[in-house]
């Protein structure tokens, strides 16, 4: 029995996919002991827009928040801080911890 070869989607398709995709970030709201209370998806064109959206989503709530893109923690901040405030604690480049 012979199988028909299906045509490849090729580079034009894959490059078009990358251009049309908007990154999906993950916002985690943490309890004082560090456990995740809520996790929410958000889409943004870049990290600055993602952080602005994250701050708007949790404004005034008593959580510590982390903004992730895939397995990389991008920002860690207090949800109660005013938008645009620089309460971010370095987190760029910090890799996610594995749970056992």
Kindly describe this structure.
The protein is α+β, with helices and mostly antiparallel strands. It has one domain (23-95). It is 23% helix and 30% strand. Strands 2-1-3-4-5 form a five-stranded antiparallel β-sheet, covered by helices on one side. The protein is globular and about 60 Å long. The model is unreliable at 13-17 and 82-100 (pLDDT under 50).
Labels describing this entry:
5-stranded antiparallel sheet; alpha+beta; disordered C terminus; 23% helix; 100 residues; globular; 30% strand
Provide the fold topology.
Elements: H1 10-20, E1 24-30, E2 36-43, H2 47-58, E3 64-69, E4 72-78, E5 94-95
Antiparallel strand pairs: 1-2, 1-3, 3-4, 4-5
Provide the domain count.
1
Strand content: 25-35%
Report the span from N to C terminus: 47 Å
Q: Major sheet: size, sense and barrel closure?
A: 5 strands, antiparallel
Unreliable parts: 13-17, 82-100
Please count the beta strands (DSSP E, at least 2 residues each). 5
Strand order of the largest sheet: 2-1-3-4-5
Round the Cα radius of gyration to an integer and report it.
Answer: 18 Å
TL;DR?
By secondary structure, the chain is of the alpha+beta class. It has helices at residues 10-20, 47-58; strands at residues 24-30, 36-43, 64-69, 72-78, 94-95. A hairpin with a 2-residue loop joins strand 3 and strand 4 (72-78).
């Amino acid at each position: 029995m012979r199988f028909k070869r299906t045509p490849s989607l090729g580079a034009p398709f894959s490059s078009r996919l990358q251009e049309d995709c908007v990154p999906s970030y993950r916002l985690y709201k943490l309890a004082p002991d560090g456990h995740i209370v809520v996790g929410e998806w958000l889409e943004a064109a870049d990290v600055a827009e993602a952080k602005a959206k994250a701050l708007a989503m949790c404004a005034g709530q008593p959580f510590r928040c982390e903004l992730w893109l895939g397995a990389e923690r991008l920002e860690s901040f207090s949800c109660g801080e005013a938008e645009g405030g620089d309460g971010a604690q370095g987190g760029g480049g910090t890799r996610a911890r594995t749970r056992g």
